[in-house]
Design a protein that fits this description.
This protein is α/β, with parallel strands linked by helices and 206 residues long. The protein has seven helices and six strands; from the N terminus they run ββαααβαβαβαβα.
């Protein structure tokens, strides 16, 4: 098993933690990571964009002029796309972009991403991340202590931590059960509490 140091918020080593090989030391499957990110981003799309075609535009369906004898091209109605205020031809309509990925493949993608972060020494484990007061400056000092500028933080955050972290740029605070592949790939570092590690391992191995 992989073993990592466990730090307190002052970057003092307070223990060791054995990481599960089934989560943090797997064969990295980049194609699964790509597929999982693509599925997550596709499922975020609302698909509600729409324009009016000639049947939806308000107006008369009467011919603007007679069929023959004018010397101009024949016309059916002023709601046609070539008229100002007419309908749009072949415009976007509501559609569903949802994609699916089976649970086993999705978990394998997350484990691959966690393995990459561990092997690149971008994983930091804390014994806890409890703050005594609401202080954005205090939270930023913790990040500076670990030299983290762009990080995903996984913890069962209390109110003090949530309010202290919510306005910090390039930092996202998330709960273990809300872990996503997109967040793991977007942020360059991962800071996670010891309790959160146990929850992640339990969820990814169940």
């Amino acid at each position: 098993m992989a073993i990592v140091d466990v730090y307190d918020i002052n970057k003092k080593i307070v223990g060791k933690l054995e990481l599960s090989d089934a989560v943090f030391d797997v064969d990295v499957k980049e194609y699964l990571i790509h597929e999982a990110v693509k599925v997550q981003l596709a499922n975020r799309r609302a698909g509600t964009v729409a324009v009016k075609n000639r049947s939806a535009v308000s107006g008369s369906g009467k011919k603007p002029f007679k069929q023959k004898g004018t010397g101009g091209a024949r016309q059916g109605c002023k709601r046609a796309p070539q008229y100002p205020g007419g309908g749009v031809a072949f415009g976007p309509q509501p559609k569903t972009y949802n994609l699916r990925m089976n649970k086993k493949a999705r978990r394998a993608a997350i484990c691959s991403a966690l393995t990459l972060l561990f092997r690149e020494n971008k994983l930091t484990v804390l014994n806890n991340l409890d703050l005594d007061t609401i202080s954005t400056k205090g939270f930023v000092n913790v990040l500076d202590t670990f030299d983290l500028s762009k990080a995903l933080i996984i913890a069962d955050a209390g109110r003090n931590l949530e309010l202290s972290a919510r306005n910090v740029r390039d930092i996202k605070l998330s709960k273990p059960e809300a872990l996503t592949i997109f967040d793991l790939m977007k942020f360059q570092n991962l800071m996670v509490t010891q309790d959160a590690v146990f929850k992640m391992e339990g969820a990814l191995q169940s």
